[in-house]
Amino acid sequence: MALSFSTTNKFLLNNQQILRSVLILSVRYKQRGHIADHLVEHHRQSPLGKLKNGAAVDAFPPKDDTTKDLRTTPHDFKYVYPDFLPNPIPYLRDRILEKLERKDMFRRRQQIDIPEFYVGSILAVTSADPYAPNRRHRFVGICIQRERHGLKHQFTLRNIVDGLGVEISYELYNPTITKIEVLKLERRLDENLAYLRDAPPEYCTFPFDMEPVKLPPGAGVPLNTIQVPITSTHWQYKWERHDLKGILLPSLPRSVRKAAERFGEPWRQWDIMRQYRTEIHDDDKAEIYEDIEKHKEDLAQYRIDSKENVKITRARPKAAGRKAILDNSNRSNMSTSK
Amino acid sequence: MNILGKLLPTTIDFITYRSFSMTVPLYHLQKVSRVHVVDNSKLALDGNVYKRMPRIIHCYKKNNNLTRTRLTAGLGDKVLLAIKGQMKKAIIVGCQQRIRKPNVPQFDKNNVVLIDDDGNPIGTRILAPIPAFFRTRGDLAKIAAIATTFV
């Protein structure tokens, strides 16, 4: 919409011209006025903005209260059983499959005790290995991540064996796993501890003969607020870019820090729609929770009814075997022939 | 609820909205990959401190369908190394590639054990842990025999 004001007389502006000028200004603003997101964020954080807008800048985000006792986690099933939660992306969900998978998951949980554990807990997994001397293969490690939904839920354990870092990824419902023990139940500040690969080895070395650490009954899951230093020269990922709470970054050059700020998208914490999209709807959660409660009841009943506990008493005499029937028929034949 | 959400990041949030891709880059081994020899043979000990790290120059891999698989090598595959100026066959004993199979481990370094043309390892001991599935395969039994720890 190219307009030139040179021909018009500034002192004689009619309504149409005023409207046009306003339109031009608005269009030009839209075209040229796009302020980059990181700049908006910068201005939002600036002291001038604070004075003008009042408390809006400092109200959220909440300050990290390290003095507060963060021991207890809500015993909400979404933290205890993250494998039962479905994919938050709706078009990737298949509800019938979920229901069937849940059934299989409960059946597996009847056979083997799958304990509650979190990323940062130290586990010992024993799986069947036909070629090992005692037919079992045991691996101890710290859980660095938990991925996938439903029956395919996997967790990865990391340990340093003979000076070499080893990671094994296990499927939680794999029938070849005979035992999962939680040697140390605790949580970390992040949900993914892949940065342990770039940390000094003492942060992920756990002896294979580690004794299980017993927590007092009724205690919540302790939170380990350890800050792991990243000392490796080559990093697998750019750890400074991801809001990782449990690491201690070395001093970085200014360009790297600026890039990290831009990448971080700090306004995302106020993105309510995104939070909505990542969470599971309450109705789905209620359905899953119902199934879990029913499973717990069934499990208790199963343990009572299982073969070791109940002696089978015959209500009626054992059915006659083939030999007995033949003998009977022979006898009857002999009697009739006579 | 909001405050709780901040203190306890949910697993779902991390899985779907990770800002870094957690699909590990393809750390498979291929033609020019540098490896670390974990033998106790003389050639291994010299080769590890030579001016050039031992490199893979050929991957022996049977493939029936795809040509692409011939270019990469993983755990348990036979490769040809260029070590200390000479060529030597070897078997991959530790790989950084993440294999999504049950009980198959992923290591922090790419380790290799030297073998001769018959498949017998040259050294008498392996100085690193070895994946447990080496016991199952017949062609890797000789390496499993001289191994110290299985992972």
Description:
The complex is a heterodimer of chains A (338) and B (151). In chain A, 33% of the residues lie in helices and 15% in strands. Chain A is an alpha/beta fold. Chain A has a domain of 169 residues: SH3 type barrels. Chain A has a five-stranded antiparallel β-sheet with strand order 4-3-2-1-5, with no helix packed on it. In chain A, strand 1 and strand 2 form a beta hairpin. The radius of gyration of chain A is 33 Å and the shape is elongated. Chain B has one domain: Ribosomal Protein L14. The longest helix of chain B has 8 residues. Chain B is globular, with a radius of gyration of 19 Å. The N terminus of chain B is likely disordered. At the A-B interface, strand 2, strand 4 and helix 7 of A face helix 1, helix 2 and strand 5 of B. Strand 4 of chain A pairs antiparallel with strand 5 of chain B.
Describe, in short, the structure shown.
The complex is a heterodimer of chains A (338) and B (151). Chain A is built from nine helices and nine strands. With 338 residues, chain A is α/β, with parallel strands linked by helices.
Say what the CATH topology of the domain at 112-280 in chain A is.
SH3 type barrels
Helix/strand-derived class of chain A?
A: alpha/beta
Q: Order of helices and strands of chain B, N to C?
A: HHEHEEEEEH
**How many runs of DSSP E, i.e. beta strands of chain A?**
9
Low-pLDDT ranges of chain B: 1-18
Largest sheet of chain B: 5 strands, mixed
Can you tell me the number of structural domains of chain B? 1
Q: Which CATH architecture of chain B is right?
A: Beta Barrel
Major sheet: arrangement of strands of chain B: 1-6-4-3-2
N-to-C span of chain B = 43 Å
Quaternary organization: heterodimer
Protein name (chain A): Large ribosomal subunit protein bL19m
Pfam families (chain A): Ribosomal_L19
GO cellular component, one term (chain A): mitochondrial large ribosomal subunit
Family (chain A): Belongs to the bacterial ribosomal protein bL19 family.
